[in-house]
Sequence to fold (727 residues):
Amino acid sequence: MALDARLKAALAFHQRGQRGEARRRYEAILVEQPADCDVLHLLGILDLEDQAPERALARFDQAIALRPDHAQAHSNRGNALYHLGRLPEALADYDRAIALAPAFIDALYNRGNVLYAMGRRDEAVSTYDRLIALQPGHAEAHSNRGVVLFDVGRFDDAVASYDRAIALRPAQAALHANRANALRQLRRLQEAVAAYDRAIALRPDASVLCSRGHALYELGRLEDAVAGYDQAITLAPGHAEAWSRRGFALRDLGRLEAAAESYGKALALDPGADFLLGEQLHTRRQACDWATHERDVASLADGIAGGKRATSPFIALAILDDPALHRRASEIYAAARYGPVGSPGPFVARDQRDRIRIGYYSADFHDHATAYLIAELIERHDRSRFDCIAFSFGPDRRDDMRRRLTAAFDRFVDVRTRSDREIVGLSRELGIDIAIDLKGYTRDSRPTVFAGRCAPVQASYLGYPGTMGTRHIDYIIADGVVIPEESRRHYSEKVVCLPGCYQVNDSRKPISGRTPSRQELGLGEGFVFCCFNNSYKIQPVTFDSWMRILARVDGSRLWLIEDNAAAVRNLRREAEARGIDGHRLVFAQRIPLADHLARHRAADLFLDTLPYNAHTTASDALWAGLPVLTLIGKAFAGRVAASLLQAIGVPELVADTARDYEQRAVDLATVPDALAAIKRKVEANRPSSALFDSTAFAKHLEAAYSIMHERHRLGLAPDHVDIATPR
Fold:
């Protein structure tokens, strides 16, 4: 048989997948023709297919030594090097192949892939573009281009690439799933769900079902999200992420015990699941289920100290009174979660004589605690010096507060359907000088907007009482009580220290004229302690103090907010376990704010929590004339009530120890004249106190804004800012 016929026969076996027979025939030819470049090249390809890249590399080297202009051998040598992880060398070989054959499609495709693997994403996109210009119907190039664009935050362009790939390969489920992921990032959630549905119809997949559940969750379709996660779990019972995300949806539905159980399943499958231990503990705290509290808190603290992804930062604030651990938790979270937003373009140059343009960013510009605090500040800003723009990424509930804020801002921009990258670009186009993050790491926050630098100066204020642990936030707006000078080292931001209290308040907050009777409220005739904080803020050690106080004050009751049925049941059981009749705990339903403020008058003394104090809840109580007794902590979240009380002129309601806290509560409950004197002082101080003087507060904050802006204008790095009270 002639040599070329023998080679064709061997190649036919190779093409049919009969690699053993093909190898035998190639090697037989090589015995007769040791310098046959084509056979050496084909044997190298077989070695690659047999997962032997080192042997393949040697074959390709032999082939290239015989024919240096063998473009395919250079390209396949690059493939062998790629499999060996020698990426720069692989890139060099692809470049040699393309230099020899500029229209070499496979070499261009693999060059794009290796550039992506090396993190050189812009070059990867350019290479795919070059390939597509030569072969527009190359579906894999369109698909991989979409993957790279997704990774750099160019989600619109990624969708366009996936669309072109799908037009070429409509039955490829992964393309529809990847397109759905990009649509979800663009907040085009309905379209994302439809794209996930197409992917699942083509090939049911637990991970795609799970991602579909995420989109449904973000749409607020919580029951549908749970059903989707259940489908994923049916398909893959060991899918830890589906169990985890199912827990979030159940939590939001108020099914806290089921949520904690779902988190537990996820942790059993993946003990190191990112930030999930904190979610499980927080959900148990919401239900006041303290069965494993001490063990869980110790695990959480150890995990954070050890650099593990144990919890989201907000949960650390609620559970631990340790500003050093709070910073560590934020740093871990920021490093893990901040994604790229792509190049947002340059900042717009503005005339320095223009007003300073402040952007306020929040999901809470509606009937929400943050909105109630900040509304009058926006109205009081000096419009001769400041231009105020709202960036709202929360719901439009068309309520009175939304209408008030829309009127108060110079411009109100609804960006809830825009991607983080789009918000960054818009902020820059609008020339925002100082961006104020009112959310931090709280629910519905958009920290990636600030990671993308939506403004030259960025500050955290009001919504998140702790450090963001990132270089992207330049300042945190605080006061000398919540962040004393010796604690500044625990904050990645420079501290803006305002006089009085950092918390702004609304002096126009309405209180209903009628106070319900204690009988209507189910409170009876004894002394009424109250705490209207969310249930997750109640630590077992705080509850111990409360029960000791009730035991010492005959006939007293503790009035709490009814967050959920599980918390009511568990708190009453915990009271009984401490020797207190569970019915001495009375639970109040949530009602409109004006009515809620009015019913404060039916209470005698507000008992605060630690490590997370009453914040807006405390200023509400003081506005209604109800004294607040607090135990000051070490971290920002545990020092807010102390700041409020000092600002309103009743520092005697700030206790330094649990024993002092309990004794003051008992003294105020059993010495009527002492309590009456405190109430008179709160009422007398309220109209003129720094706490409720929004006009003075606006001036102090504007002084800080001016300094922050001027430092940037002069090219100076951010530094601590201390605003003195004018004499």
About this structure: DSSP finds 33 helices and 14 strands in the chain. The radius of gyration is 32 Å. Residues 694-713 form the longest helix (20 residues). The CA atoms of residues 305 and 325 lie 7 Å apart.
